[in-house]
TrEMBL record:
Transmembrane segments: 20-45, 98-118, 130-151, 182-204, 216-235, 255-274
Organism: Remersonia thermophila
InterPro entries named among the record's database cross-references: Elsinochrome_Biosynth-Asso
Keyword tags: Membrane, Transmembrane, Transmembrane helix
Record's protein name: Uncharacterized protein
UniProt keyword Transmembrane, yes or no: yes
Residues of the signal peptide: none
Origin superkingdom: Eukaryota
Amino acid sequence: MLAQPSCTVAPDSVPSDAGIAGAGVLLASTITAGLALGISASLVLQDLWRSSRPTSGNPSVIRRKLLNGYSDQQIMVGIGLQSVGLVKSSSLVPYHFFLIWMLALLSTATHNAALLALVQDFKRDWVLRWMRQFLMFVNLVLSCVYGIYVLQSKIRGLPNTLPIGCVWELSSSESNVGGLDYVGTIVTIAGNCVVFGLATWYLQSRRQRWYKAVQVVGLILMLGIAIGATARAYLLSQAFGAPDVKLGDEGEKQWSFGQLLSLLMLVLPVISVIEIMRGEIAVALPVQDEDKQALFDGELSDQSAGGYRTK
């Protein structure tokens, strides 16, 4: 995007990029998403159990703290991946560009699943809530731009060894891509917009109607999106599947320092668990059912002098 891509001659092959599609990168993304989705599901199921048996269960402080960290991480990972991908569109071929999109979709689905489980906690502070809303909007815009790039590359029949940025330089070309690819890309873009609208309503609504049903259905939907994005990325990658472009080497199958570092970073949440168990970090208790209606009360007036809050 910042540099003019070379679109004159399509090479026979392209170099691999282990930083995008390496085995360690894919595994680290999948494991992180799997952990976050598992914690989200456990909290939602526990919430359902506690609603039927109010005296049972525990606050789940450790899981909530971990999930809150994963939620922040995933939304920033999605924005970061897509931002870097767009900046490097003058050098990234459609193969790597599409893999970044799939990893970003996985991060978005993971964040939305965490939102379903922790929405009442996010509503404690209106500043943090609107900040999260802004980040979700930025992520949606980037995802839609990504989808437009991918759709245009299919419509114009961009050779898979040319940079994705060349899609705007092609005057005309015969596309050899089937209709299913068009439909899948369009559905993905439209689905992102619909999910963003529902997530915004869920995050900002004062009255949580069908709260439990939305949690369960939304969690199943996010799990389906995460599984679909992961399967597509794995089947297309050189490390675990068959790329749709000829790569000049097998660097994405090799375990380099960066690949191992991605997996080692998964150990960091364990430190937070130990600190919470040792009492080093104080974590607010989850919002109870009787407190949910009061979360928005005094949203702006709670900053007034003396702590006075209007009803």
